[in-house]
Amino acid sequence: MSTLLAITVFLPLLGALILFSTPGLDRRTARQLALMITLGTLALTLILTLAFDPARSGPQFAAVDDPSAPAPAPNDSSHPAYGYRWLDTGPGSGIRFALGLDGLSLVLFALTALLMVPSVFASWNSIDDRPALHYALMLLLETGLLGLFAALDVILFYVFFEFTLIPLFFLIGLYGGPERRRASVTFFLYTLAGSLLTLLGVIALVLVHQQFSPNHTLTFSIPELTAGLRSLPWSEWSAQATSSWTSPQALIFLLLFAGFAIKVPIFPFHTWLPLAHVEAPTAGSILLAGVLLKVGGYGFLRFNLAMTPHGAAFFVPLLATLSVLGILHGALTALAQSDVKRLVAYSSVSHMGFVTLGLFTLSQVGLEAATIQMINHGLTTGALFACIGILYERYHTRDMAQLGGLWSRLPLFAFFLILACLGSAAVPGLNGFVGEFPILLAQFARDPVYAILASLGMILGAYYLLMMIRRLLFGPLREPSDHSSPSPNHTPALDHHHHHHDHQPTSSSIPPLGWHEIAGLVPLMIGIVAIGLFPQPIFDRISPSLREIATGFANPSLSTPSSTALTSPTPPPALSRPSTTTSQTPSSITLAVQDPRR
Amino acid sequence: MTPAEFLTISRQTFLALAPEILLLIAAIVMMTSGAFVRRSRDLWAALAATALIAAIALLCLSPAGSPPPYASVIANDALAAWSRLGLLLTGLILIALAHNQVDDHRAPEFFGALLIVFAGAACVTAANELIFLFVGLELVSIPTYLLLYLPRRNPTTQEAVTKYFYLSIFSSALLLFGLAYLYGLTGLSNLKALAYLIHWNNAALQLPQPTFAVIALVFILAGLGFRVAAVPFHFYAPDVYQGSPTVLAALLAWVPKAIGFVALVRVLAATFGWQPVAAEVSGLSSISDRATLLTAILAIATMTLGNTVALAQDNLKRLLAYSSIAHAGYLLIGLAAAFRNGPEASQAVLGADGIIFYLATYALMTLGAFGVILALDAPSRPVERVDDLAGLARTQPWATLALTLCLLSLAGIPPLAGFWGKLRIFQSALEVARGPDRSLFLILATAGALNAAIAAYYYLRLIVLMIFRDPITTDSPPHHAPWPTILAIGACASLSLLLGILPAPLATVSRQAARSALELPPPPAPTPAQIAHATAN
């Protein structure tokens, strides 16, 4: 199976290389090849998902260098040397090319493979200029993202993490909107600045582990580091530090935090996001919102929470505050937008605020809900961006002031848009509810004030999404006329990549949804409904890996004077789900949250 | 030393130096015959390339045995072997780039001088003796003046060359002053013996003037800081790069930097490098502390100044000049870490290891970037300013690809070679960030990381111009570079990518080289005759 995983990761790269070497390929062939590759990758991912054993917590499908070594027992803390030696670093296992999936990475891996399909469909007719290059960049991005989630080595993770910047930079810069150059450079530099600090944090963790672990092993393996770092006497070192800010974990936490906070993005670091989202081509927006923001959340879970729990516990009040600020800021700014793409971009800031709020409850329930919420956000925002792409291809405007009553023109589109909006607004029965509600519950148990403020953001979210539906779909039919003066934000004349722009849409020229548009949206819609009704399979898969992370916070050594002084006055109840309970519906979460308080 | 031993050592030394001697002979023959024979520049370039290939073959065939380290002027160790190989290979790249950049009647002098530069550079990396090191450095400098004067085109060029000439002489004087103090400290000019005395015999020997060490440190750092273009000795670089032909700017951006850092490793890091965990040695720890602090300050100043000023540049060669200053800053981080690696250092990545790895990747990406600029520069469409690159992707897709790879590698983006260089430099700094040095090295590594982000901006700016912008200049027929140029650029760009995907061989090489530079083998026991001689005195 380890070979299959490697094939899955590198199949898109193969497709990208074929497309790169044939730059003159026409649009039809290029898109068909890209579709075949993405569908093939998705099929392989499905095989991996079905073969995945949810009961085990360690990484699966990983190649082990020494085949005679026994496979690790479930919950065994010792890990073999995964993968193959990549760069020798003297004694120890060195930097390894190691791929493997645990429950957490599996769901995000699958999300990536799934979202690639709507991205290809979204570019189906809209890319005329150098189509082979466009699809090659997309497939390159897919390899980067799949590899990132599957990496079991910190340096390999970082290589894939940075590598994703290159295709996305060119995707935005070559195929984006009128401000594409500024957007791509801003995006690249912001992310790079943060991730270089993250690199330092990662190296620092590796070296601290080497210096203080009993065997002085120099390892770059993520499972080994996570297990090894946990046994080090961090609380003693924190006690020696002159202030909690300079305790070793706090420093390393901040270094790691820099890259992931920009990626998520957490409130004051979000300014690159609206620009990049709005200027990116539809496929870029879907992948950016759907997967790339999740990389930040994934990094928080894998590094910040799993490897520096003391640092996380120390910064929780600050981070929860920033998350709530992000939720409210994103929601309020989204309210003020008339450009729908901009609106969805700001709603991403708000929804990702929920994700980080869930993560920084530092409880099992919060972590699980945040992970589900990452998937939800990927599906709903991906669907919303795909819908906006459909709209823009037909009208060349995304201004709500110029559009209205589209229900009668595009009924199927209206259905998809409404479903995606309801899912995003966390209506019970759809996916958003399964994520946001437990986040609020877990946060309520930690500190009610944050939960109340965050729920305000939820209400605002429902408000701006419904308002968007009302303005776009209901009322009298309103379409941009021939001589409408477009606002400077989206002058189609500058946008020479869209071949439609020279003829203004007339009422008869608006085609109904094509098969490719429907095919792109249907899987997302199925996901939105399925997760809303039956999230259990996902919970089953992510729980074991997240339980391992959450146990780091149940550790009594966490309640050092430094960390309790700054958390809430009442110590947070341990939010661990009773392990005997296997059913995971929202009501059982409620019980679990209230349980310790009795 | 008996006459027989002396003869053996001399023979070994000459054998080990055979590649350099061959290069010098070839250069002298070329320069002399150039006065009598009129041939095209292609022939002279081919001759020079043949001489370099022969030298590389000699280097590979020469016996690995090294003359005794405490008695010989050269150290034929892994550092010498690999750096000479690397330098001679980049010599081939430079000759390929230069083959059509010089007039026919100046070609013999030009290529002859180029060969002498590389012979000198190879001598520096093998030097185990203060005097020999200085000779090697001058063997690089003097032909460089000649190279810069040969194509003197206009007053600006002349001004740049004159500036370089006087500053280079000044820096040589500073270096010589520093080397003299190093000699005065111990009475020795053999580098291994010097390092051995300072490390293991310090307490017993009671060096008469420990302050000499500080003076030596400051002046050597200043003298070599000029060669590597470190702040505050950098100010000649932008003017000289801009004023000189592109191929010479490439030469100046690479050779002096490489030999400067190898010399810094050989003279300073291997001598004053000291590990805080080792047994307390009087005097040395304070010198090592000062060296670390001084280098750290220089590193931060160099990186920050190079990168921030590069942001504002519109001339391509000036931009690359500031970029090369900034890279000297990253390399100085490695040097600061190297001052914390003693001869028995246990770190997985040593400072010197990071420096050597980084230098190898730096050669590829810098020579590649200069090479593309040189290949694109045609009389019909000069490439001088940043804006001249606009829309290049439409007319010259392959050149764009090569330059993009080199620039991304310079910015340190994985999976390109430049990333591993930065990773190893940062890792070497964080490896020694413990104890009292913790905050210093943390600040140093953080400054390096932030600077890498700043630097990405101006590299990206070029990529954006080339790929995202439409051409400004009028359509001129695409100009095709000759095959040696294309081969050289292609080698640089593809190796930048290949070493990024498979960095392991280079890492092995750089670790071997760094270890061999720090190694202090036990000195041979004195023979009874020597003891008798000593007691008789």
How would you classify the helix and strand content of chain A by structural class? Answer: mainly alpha
- The CA-CA distance between the termini of chain B, in Å, is 16 Å
SS summary, helix count of chain A: 23
The total of beta strands of chain A comes to: 2
Assembly type of the chains comes to: heterodimer
Q: Give the CA-based shape of chain A.
A: globular
Cross-sheet strand order for the largest sheet of chain A: 1-2
The termini of chain A sit apart by: 47 Å
Count of DSSP H/I helices of chain B:
22
Proportion in helices of chain A: 55-70%
The secondary-structure element order of chain B is HHHHHHHHHHHHHHHHHHHHHH
Largest sheet features of chain B: none
What's the alpha carbon Rg of chain A, rounded to whole Å? 23 Å
Care to describe what's here?
- The complex is a heterodimer of chains A (598) and B (537).
- Chain A has 23 helices and two strands.
- Chain A has helices at 2-21, 27-51, 103-122, 131-150, 154-163, 165-175, 180-212, 222-230, 234-240, 248-263, 272-279, 282-307, 309-335, 340-359, 364-395, 406-409, 411-424, 431-446, 448-473, 515-533, 536-554, 561-566, 586-594, and strands at residues 84-87, 95-97.
- In chain A, a hairpin with a 7-residue loop joins strand 1 (84-87) and strand 2.
- Chain A has a two-stranded antiparallel sheet with strand order 1-2.
- Helix content of chain A is 66%, strand content 1%.
- Chain A has 598 residues and is mainly α.
- With 537 residues, chain B is mostly helical.
- Chain B has one domain.
- Helices cover 74% and strands 0% of the residues of chain B.
- Chain B has helices at 3-16, 18-33, 41-61, 78-98, 107-126, 130-149, 155-186, 191-200, 202-205, 210-228, 236-243, 246-272, 284-311, 316-338, 351-376, 392-395, 397-411, 417-431, 438-468, 483-501, 504-518, 528-536.
- The two termini of chain B are 16 Å apart.
- Chains A and B meet through strand 1, helix 5, helix 6 and helix 7 of A and helix 17, helix 18, helix 19 and helix 21 of B.
